[in-house]
Amino acid sequence: MIKRSLEERFWEKVDVRGPDECWIWQACTNEWGAGLIKIGNRKIRCAYRISWELHFGPIPKGKQVLHNCGNTSCVNPSHLYLGKDLEERFWEKVKITGPDDCWEWQAGLFDVGYGVFHADKETRRAHCVSWEFAYGPIPSDKWVLHRCDNRKCVNPHHLFLGTALDNAQDRKSKGRNGIQYGEYANNARLTNAQVLEIREQYTTQDITQCELAMRWGVSQAEISKIVMGKSWKHLEQKQAKYGNNARRGKRGDRNNQAKLTSSQVLEIRKRYAQGKITQTKLAQQYNVSRSAISAIITRATWSHI
Ligand SMILES: [Zn+2]
Ligand SMILES: [Zn+2]
């Protein structure tokens, strides 16, 4: 028997239609509807990625192939595009002017005025990310400071590393001592008093971890560790009276893990039910994991609405 080429085997499983229509994979798919094809003896690959490669050549390392039609079972190469990498995504949010000017962040800001950048699973301060792109990882005992005193600025030439002492002096000289919390810090950016206040606010106010993260200019993961007592453990004892009891049993958008509001959840279910969008796409658009979307749709979570 003559071995057929991959290309031949591939296209016989596709319902090829007009150039602008979705070309739906007719053979087996994974749980998100993406077509699967067997390569050689063992390897199983996503059909849309193969479609990309058959048309445009090898996918650059680490790049994702995405659908602009939102239909994961589609393999029409004109509906496929390469996902942007982190640096690309970062710089498209920055207004870059002259080399000595402030390059201001054009997207969301923390309440304290720094840019917010969602990198993979973390929420980061934009100027710290910029420093890392330019100079490498930030040492854990150092803070990224602005020479230009413009918090929106991410021009790496306006940023420098300082110690806790530099930070304190800088803050004092700029007359903001003690007012803007953790403003120059990168890692150990909160004080004991602030950590206690965060725990207090979380226990006594109707506020989510995300909202606290925005209020204090740190990541949601960091807030989570603080309120769950996983970090700043030395402060735990005093706070024992608060515990998590006050929060227990809360559901939906006041749940301590919630990243979405009730109306967003309803919107997600509605859009998915209309069949025009995949779970993956929804996950990207609402900035949550695909498993979170799946749980919402199957009502494993948010079952009360
Ligand atoms: Zn399509
Ligand atoms: Zn600047």
Describe the structure.
This protein is an alpha+beta fold and 305 residues long. The protein has four domains: 6-82, no CATH class; 87-173, no CATH class; 192-254, no CATH class; 262-297. It is 32% helix and 12% strand. One zinc ion (ZN) binds at residues 102, 148, 150, 153, 155, 158.
Keywords:
305 residues, two-stranded antiparallel sheet, 32% helix, binds zinc ion, 12 strands, 11 helices, single chain, two-stranded antiparallel ribbon, globular, alpha+beta
Helicity level, as a percent range?
25-40%
Major β-sheet profile? 2 strands, antiparallel
Give the termini distance in whole angstroms. 58 Å
- As residue ranges, the low-confidence spans are 176-188, 237-257
Rg estimate, integer Å: 24 Å
Order of helices and strands: HEEEEHEEHEEEEHEEHHHHHHH
Summing up helix and strand content along with how strands pair, one would put the structural category as alpha+beta
What fraction of the residues are assigned to beta strands by DSSP? Answer: 5-15%
Shape: globular
Contiguous helical run count: 11
Indicate the mean pLDDT.
79
Number of extended strands: 12
In terms of topology, how is this protein built?
Elements: H1 6-11, E1 14-15, E2 24-25, E3 36-39, E4 43-46, H2 47-56, E5 65-67, E6 80-82, H3 86-91, E7 94-95, E8 104-105, E9 116-119, E10 122-125, H4 126-135, E11 143-146, E12 159-162, H5 164-173, H6 192-204, H7 209-216, H8 220-227, H9 262-273, H10 279-286, H11 290-297
Antiparallel strand pairs: 1-2, 3-4, 5-6, 7-8, 9-10, 11-12
Helix pairs in contact: 7-8, 10-11
This protein binds zinc ion (ZN) (2 copies).
